[in-house]
Amino acid sequence: MSFGRLERSQGAAPMSDINMTPLIDVMLVLLVIFMITAPLLVSSVQVDLPRAASAGASNAPKYVELTIDRAGAVYVDDALQSAEGLILLLEKTAKTHADAELRLRADTTVPYGRVVEVMGLAQKAGLNRIGFVSDTPQTTKP
What CATH code is carried by the domain that includes residue 101? Predict the structure, then answer.
């Protein structure tokens, strides 16, 4: 039995060149992204419009501001309404303005059942567009 010579081979020498393949891949991806997004940034015609004072849009949709306070009382445009008066007012609004929106403002302490009851009256009257008004949360600065 003969033993071979046990020599250690030097192995591969460390590479001192930068591998360019990943850099080229990233560059091509960025190029494609810029080619796609550049036309989107300049898609509109820049125009300096004249300024004029006018009275709001004439085709603005009609809305009814309905507020429910802590006690559950219902106000329409800051006027207190009874249950019968509320139903008549909502039906009248629905007949004259079919696309009218009900903007509902309710206190945080009002029971959910009362809010649903008022929403049901509005839908029964024919007002199907109901929006809920809320305040933006306060941000505290350090």
Answer: 3.30.420.270
